[in-house]
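User: Here's a chain of 198 residues. Predict its fold as C-alpha coordinates.
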Amino acid sequence: MPLSAYLSVLGGTGLTAYVGLTRIAGLREGDDVFVSGAAGGVGTATGRFARLLGAGRLIGSAGSPEKGKYLTEQVGYDVAFDYHSAPVSELLGAAIGALRERGRVVRIGTISQYNTPDAPPVVFNHADVVEKSLRIEGFLVSGHRDAQEELYDFAVPHLRSGALALDETVVDGFELIVEAFLLMLRGGNTGKILIRKA
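Assistant: Prediction complete.
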Protein backbone atom coordinates (compact mmCIF):
# COMPACT_ATOMS: atom_id res chain seq x y z
CA MET A 1 0.00 0.00 0.00
CA PRO A 2 1.18 3.56 -0.62
CA LEU A 3 2.34 4.97 2.72
CA SER A 4 0.05 7.98 2.29
CA ALA A 5 -2.97 5.63 2.36
CA TYR A 6 -2.34 5.12 6.08
CA LEU A 7 -2.85 8.86 6.56
CA SER A 8 -6.00 8.97 4.43
CA VAL A 9 -8.36 6.11 3.52
CA LEU A 10 -6.68 3.60 5.86
CA GLY A 11 -6.17 6.11 8.68
CA GLY A 12 -8.46 8.24 10.81
CA THR A 13 -9.93 9.92 7.74
CA GLY A 14 -11.02 6.64 6.19
CA LEU A 15 -12.10 5.22 9.53
CA THR A 16 -14.38 8.22 10.08
CA ALA A 17 -15.97 7.74 6.65
CA TYR A 18 -16.31 3.97 7.07
CA VAL A 19 -17.80 4.10 10.58
CA GLY A 20 -20.15 6.90 9.58
CA LEU A 21 -21.50 4.90 6.65
CA THR A 22 -21.58 1.40 8.12
CA ARG A 23 -22.03 1.68 11.87
CA ILE A 24 -23.82 4.98 12.35
CA ALA A 25 -25.88 5.41 9.17
CA GLY A 26 -26.24 1.67 8.56
CA LEU A 27 -25.94 2.24 4.80
CA ARG A 28 -27.90 -0.28 2.77
CA GLU A 29 -27.43 -1.01 -0.91
CA GLY A 30 -29.41 1.49 -2.97
CA ASP A 31 -29.60 4.15 -0.23
CA ASP A 32 -29.15 7.70 -1.49
CA VAL A 33 -26.36 9.64 0.27
CA PHE A 34 -25.77 13.37 0.70
CA VAL A 35 -22.37 14.56 1.97
CA SER A 36 -21.72 18.14 3.06
CA GLY A 37 -18.10 19.25 2.63
CA ALA A 38 -17.67 16.40 0.18
CA ALA A 39 -14.33 17.49 -1.34
CA GLY A 40 -12.30 17.20 1.86
CA GLY A 41 -10.52 14.11 3.13
CA VAL A 42 -13.50 12.53 4.87
CA GLY A 43 -15.93 13.65 2.16
CA THR A 44 -13.98 12.08 -0.70
CA ALA A 45 -13.43 8.88 1.31
CA THR A 46 -17.14 8.80 2.16
CA GLY A 47 -18.09 9.16 -1.49
CA ARG A 48 -15.69 6.46 -2.66
CA PHE A 49 -16.70 4.05 0.12
CA ALA A 50 -20.41 4.70 -0.45
CA ARG A 51 -19.98 3.80 -4.12
CA LEU A 52 -18.16 0.57 -3.23
CA LEU A 53 -20.87 -0.27 -0.67
CA GLY A 54 -23.59 0.03 -3.33
CA ALA A 55 -25.09 3.43 -2.53
CA GLY A 56 -27.77 4.76 -4.86
CA ARG A 57 -27.66 8.44 -5.78
CA LEU A 58 -24.61 10.25 -4.34
CA ILE A 59 -24.91 14.01 -3.84
CA GLY A 60 -22.25 16.32 -2.42
CA SER A 61 -21.67 19.95 -1.57
CA ALA A 62 -18.29 21.60 -1.89
CA GLY A 63 -16.70 25.04 -1.61
CA SER A 64 -16.24 25.80 -5.31
CA PRO A 65 -17.49 24.79 -8.76
CA GLU A 66 -14.06 23.26 -9.44
CA LYS A 67 -14.36 21.01 -6.41
CA GLY A 68 -17.87 20.04 -7.50
CA LYS A 69 -16.48 19.07 -10.89
CA TYR A 70 -13.76 17.01 -9.21
CA LEU A 71 -16.40 15.17 -7.17
CA THR A 72 -18.48 14.23 -10.19
CA GLU A 73 -15.62 13.50 -12.59
CA GLN A 74 -13.13 11.82 -10.24
CA VAL A 75 -14.78 10.62 -7.04
CA GLY A 76 -18.07 9.24 -8.34
CA TYR A 77 -20.66 11.67 -7.04
CA ASP A 78 -23.73 11.93 -9.27
CA VAL A 79 -24.30 15.60 -8.47
CA ALA A 80 -22.28 18.21 -6.59
CA PHE A 81 -22.99 21.87 -5.93
CA ASP A 82 -21.11 24.87 -4.58
CA TYR A 83 -22.44 25.65 -1.11
CA HIS A 84 -21.48 29.29 -1.65
CA SER A 85 -24.30 29.50 -4.20
CA ALA A 86 -26.90 29.80 -1.41
CA PRO A 87 -26.92 30.08 2.39
CA VAL A 88 -25.49 26.85 3.81
CA SER A 89 -27.95 26.68 6.69
CA GLU A 90 -30.86 26.83 4.25
CA LEU A 91 -29.34 24.20 1.97
CA LEU A 92 -28.73 21.80 4.87
CA GLY A 93 -32.19 22.49 6.25
CA ALA A 94 -33.62 21.60 2.84
CA ALA A 95 -31.50 18.44 2.75
CA ILE A 96 -32.84 17.33 6.12
CA GLY A 97 -36.36 18.19 5.01
CA ALA A 98 -35.88 16.05 1.90
CA LEU A 99 -35.09 12.92 3.89
CA ARG A 100 -37.36 9.97 3.27
CA GLU A 101 -39.01 7.94 6.00
CA ARG A 102 -36.40 6.40 8.33
CA GLY A 103 -33.68 8.64 6.89
CA ARG A 104 -30.45 8.99 8.82
CA VAL A 105 -28.21 12.01 9.44
CA VAL A 106 -24.65 11.41 10.60
CA ARG A 107 -22.93 14.45 12.10
CA ILE A 108 -19.13 14.51 12.26
CA GLY A 109 -16.56 17.25 12.53
CA THR A 110 -16.90 20.90 13.38
CA ILE A 111 -14.29 22.44 11.09
CA SER A 112 -16.84 24.78 9.53
CA GLN A 113 -17.26 26.41 12.94
CA TYR A 114 -13.54 27.22 13.07
CA ASN A 115 -13.89 29.45 10.02
CA THR A 116 -17.39 30.81 10.53
CA PRO A 117 -18.21 30.75 14.26
CA ASP A 118 -21.08 33.19 13.69
CA ALA A 119 -22.75 31.10 10.97
CA PRO A 120 -26.48 30.69 11.57
CA PRO A 121 -27.58 27.28 12.85
CA VAL A 122 -29.32 24.85 10.53
CA VAL A 123 -33.07 25.26 10.84
CA PHE A 124 -35.38 22.40 9.93
CA ASN A 125 -38.80 21.10 10.84
CA HIS A 126 -38.19 19.07 13.99
CA ALA A 127 -41.61 17.45 13.65
CA ASP A 128 -40.18 15.57 10.65
CA VAL A 129 -37.86 13.70 13.01
CA VAL A 130 -40.91 12.11 14.64
CA GLU A 131 -43.27 11.94 11.67
CA LYS A 132 -40.67 10.41 9.33
CA SER A 133 -38.92 8.38 12.07
CA LEU A 134 -35.62 10.09 11.30
CA ARG A 135 -32.38 9.48 13.19
CA ILE A 136 -29.75 12.17 13.77
CA GLU A 137 -26.54 10.98 15.42
CA GLY A 138 -23.04 12.29 15.86
CA PHE A 139 -19.88 10.42 16.82
CA LEU A 140 -16.17 10.69 17.50
CA VAL A 141 -14.02 8.24 15.59
CA SER A 142 -11.88 7.69 18.69
CA GLY A 143 -14.76 5.62 20.06
CA HIS A 144 -14.59 3.21 17.12
CA ARG A 145 -10.94 2.12 16.97
CA ASP A 146 -12.18 -1.48 17.08
CA ALA A 147 -13.33 -1.01 13.45
CA GLN A 148 -9.76 -0.48 12.16
CA GLU A 149 -9.19 -4.09 11.04
CA GLU A 150 -12.66 -4.15 9.48
CA LEU A 151 -11.70 -1.04 7.51
CA TYR A 152 -8.49 -2.72 6.31
CA ASP A 153 -10.42 -5.82 5.25
CA PHE A 154 -12.80 -3.63 3.26
CA ALA A 155 -10.44 -1.04 1.76
CA VAL A 156 -7.15 -2.84 1.07
CA PRO A 157 -8.51 -5.20 -1.63
CA HIS A 158 -10.12 -2.20 -3.38
CA LEU A 159 -6.85 -0.25 -3.20
CA ARG A 160 -4.95 -3.22 -4.64
CA SER A 161 -7.46 -3.67 -7.49
CA GLY A 162 -7.51 0.04 -8.31
CA ALA A 163 -11.23 0.36 -7.49
CA LEU A 164 -10.35 2.73 -4.62
CA ALA A 165 -8.21 5.77 -5.42
CA LEU A 166 -6.49 8.19 -3.07
CA ASP A 167 -7.59 11.83 -3.00
CA GLU A 168 -4.67 13.91 -1.78
CA THR A 169 -3.36 17.45 -1.84
CA VAL A 170 0.39 17.29 -1.18
CA VAL A 171 2.43 20.23 0.10
CA ASP A 172 6.19 19.79 -0.32
CA GLY A 173 8.36 20.95 2.55
CA PHE A 174 7.85 20.39 6.26
CA GLU A 175 8.64 24.06 6.84
CA LEU A 176 5.26 24.80 5.20
CA ILE A 177 3.26 22.98 7.89
CA VAL A 178 1.53 26.17 9.09
CA GLU A 179 0.68 27.23 5.54
CA ALA A 180 -0.66 23.74 4.81
CA PHE A 181 -2.83 23.82 7.94
CA LEU A 182 -4.24 27.21 6.98
CA LEU A 183 -4.81 25.98 3.43
CA MET A 184 -6.92 23.15 4.84
CA LEU A 185 -8.89 25.49 7.13
CA ARG A 186 -9.60 27.75 4.15
CA GLY A 187 -10.76 24.86 1.98
CA GLY A 188 -7.78 25.02 -0.38
CA ASN A 189 -7.36 21.25 -0.55
CA THR A 190 -9.12 18.43 -2.34
CA GLY A 191 -9.06 15.17 -0.38
CA LYS A 192 -6.60 14.66 2.45
CA ILE A 193 -3.92 17.32 2.83
CA LEU A 194 -0.46 15.84 3.33
CA ILE A 195 2.94 17.40 3.95
CA ARG A 196 5.89 15.71 2.27
CA LYS A 197 9.43 16.29 3.46
CA ALA A 198 11.25 17.93 0.57
